[in-house]
Amino acid sequence: MKTVSRITLLRILPGFLLLTFLAQIAAAQAPIQYFRQYDQRGIGVFETSKNDTIPFNDLKLRVGGNFTQSFQTLSHSNDSGVPLYDLGNGFPLAQANLNLDFQLADGVRVNLISYMSSHHHNEMWVKAGYFQIDKVSFLNSELLNNLWKNLTLKIGHMEINYGDAHFRRSDGGNAFWNPFIENNILDAYTTEIGAELYWQKNGFLLMGGMTNGEIQGSVTAPEKRSPSVYGKVGYDKVLAERTRVRLTGSLLRKSSSVNGTLFRGDRTGSNYQFVMEPATATVTANAFSGRINPNFSDDVTTFVINPFVQFRGLELFGTVEFAEGNAAVENGEVQYTPAANDATKFNKLEKRKFDQLAVDLLYRFGKADRFYVGARYNKVSGTQVFGSTTTVATAGGISQGTRLDISQERTAFGGGWFITRNILLKGEYVTQKFNDYPAGDILQGGKFDGFVFQGTIAF
User: Fold this and answer.
1) Radius of gyration of the chain (CA)
2) What's the CA angle centered on 384, arms 378 and 386, to 5 degrees?
3) 266 and 241 in contact (C-beta within 8 Å)?
4) Which residue has the higher pLDDT, 454 or 7?
5) Mean of pLDDT over the chain
6) Which SS3 state, helix, strand or coil, does residue 285 take?
7) How many helices (H) and strands (E) does the chain have?
8) For residue 44, how many C-alpha atoms fall within 13 Å in the half-sphere facing its CB?
9) Which residues, in sequence order, are CB contacts of 360 under 8 Å at separation 6+?
10) What is the DSSP string of 98-146?
11) Is 156 in contact with 115 (CB distance < 8 Å)?
């Protein structure tokens, strides 16, 4: 008995010590300069400001995390007769993020986030890592020090700063900054390798960025790849206590890519699990339920305007977005090989377009805004392509598909309670319709509705 007890103790002790260590870290987190808090303090924060409020003492490490568990009671239907997933009430897979932030020098920090569990990647997966430089005292140049008072440079594999909606979206275990359950139907989010340079002064914001244009690095097929070039201009001003206005516009341009991921760069998955998915759906293969992927990889041009207004407890956030582009096969870039023995040539087609409107209206109340209620309306309409194929070595194996105008429309009513600044309980009623999909498509006459609740922790 003594031997068994000792073995059991030896097995338990390392885990207990690790939990004790992490608890101590969470209780006394090292302050990081020019940093967005992961908890309630990070809500309403977009780009980090140039306010220098934390002195630099030495190298620091901050270990944080996000954990989210949902409960959903959703139902779905369609008119096509294609069997849908047997959807019932229950708990989707819990999601968790590990957040590491390092203060390397005065005004220089590193951010590294990993998905520990998510709907799309169930295994641990690195999201991104980047340098952020807000001071350049290490260069020993008074001229550059003065110039850098208004500049910020970000370099790495990072979440690109296109639009403002990505600052309010759910990202795996991090569901704290999103007042609702799911992200926009047209979810503009991706991580790419590159750099962004910011200028901020008196509420004005200018930003320019360039990345490799894809979610992963690659050293092959350079003729099929080109960088993404994008920028943002905006104004963000606190006019009085609890009164703030912000307006930004963002533009992105990319001529070609193998895997264009601006609207499908999420690697964690939807928070409406398995809605409108086939009967054979799996967590990894059908992770993005309730969203639209326009399948743009070439000749991509996107523009978005985001207004944000706060007046006392009222909060308004909007997205007005215009996107156009094509897939490679629509651009005439996919042709038959000699082995196919097919002389058909494919020309470049006119670019397809998608438009999005999203409006969030919230009212926050209670001590320290511990409670909120709100509504969201989101509509996406555009030209989608169906039935395209790219089998280049077989006669008849290439098709540029059939184009149809479709739309999706979602309405959500919800609310939340910040039990503490690190613990949020929220829920919503949602309904979404799928309009003008072709006969026989699983989304023909599609609709889902119901309730989703989430408990989420951030530190």
Assistant:
1) 24
2) 135
3) no
4) 454
5) 91
6) coil
7) 2, 18
8) 20
9) 168, 179, 180, 315, 316, 317, 318, 374, 375, 376
10) EEEEEEEETTEEEEEEEEEE-SS--S-EEEEEEEEES--GGG--HHHHH
11) no
